[in-house]
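Dear support,

I submitted the protein below through the web form. The confirmation email said the job was done, but the results page showed an empty box. After a refresh the structure appeared. I'm attaching both so you can tell me whether what I see now is the final result or a partial one.
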Amino acid sequence: MSVLYTYYSYTMAEKDEIKLIPLDDIIEPIETLRTSIDMEKIRELSESIREKGLLQPILVRFDGNKFEILAGHRRFLAHKMIVYPQIKSIVKEVNDEDAILIRATENLQREDLSPIEEAKVYGVLRDKLGYTMEDIARKMGKNRLTIKKYLNLLQLPQIFQNAADTKALSLTVANILLAIDDEVLQHYYLQNAVENGCSQKTAELWLADYEKTKQARYYEAAGGGDELYATREDKPIYHACDVCLQAVELKDIKHLVVCPECYKNAQRKRLDVT
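What the results page shows now:
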């Protein structure tokens, strides 16, 4: 029986059998979650296939005209690179939801999965299938908080998504700094984290510093008639300046980010004044 005859005579009873399907009759995944494909690794895979053969068939579904790849995109690309006319395949009859779940599961099993790629997997399940974080956690066998942290990465501007993708910006630090709701300051701190590195503790200090500054602004705005802070205006709160020791009202305090050495110098100046 010819390959083409087997291809066109596909039936439900044969769906779990390994078949040889012409590459020309296969289409790549309609939606790929990879941000990039390492072609050097594809070349290495093609050489392995050339030497040992394809050890694991790809998984496809038939859409009435072509076979769409569900799992095994890299194996398919490796076959194209060595100009093999056909590839071992298993045909599955699945609906769109199951197809998305199969691709998501395969992507999460990749060793080279980047943080943003993982975030996009969960984003597709949320946006395409309407899954809640609880649904995603249950389907993917993950903790709900983990899902939330990854989904938060998709809120980052593209430049910082790229940084997270290369792990120049960690998942933990990104989530902490996303709590800064001032767009300009958030960008400033994120840029600083990417360019100079940032630990979880440092990010938490930056966030705390921002929250103090924000609170001081609330006090300053109280003169506009905000009843919530009106009583604070009646009883001003003062704090000593770390440099000159003069009293300064809390609403006028400005916070700076300083290194340990500059902080020590400021402390020495205080001692000189006293």
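Response: this is the final, complete result; the empty box was a page-load delay. The chain is about 55% helix and 10% strand.
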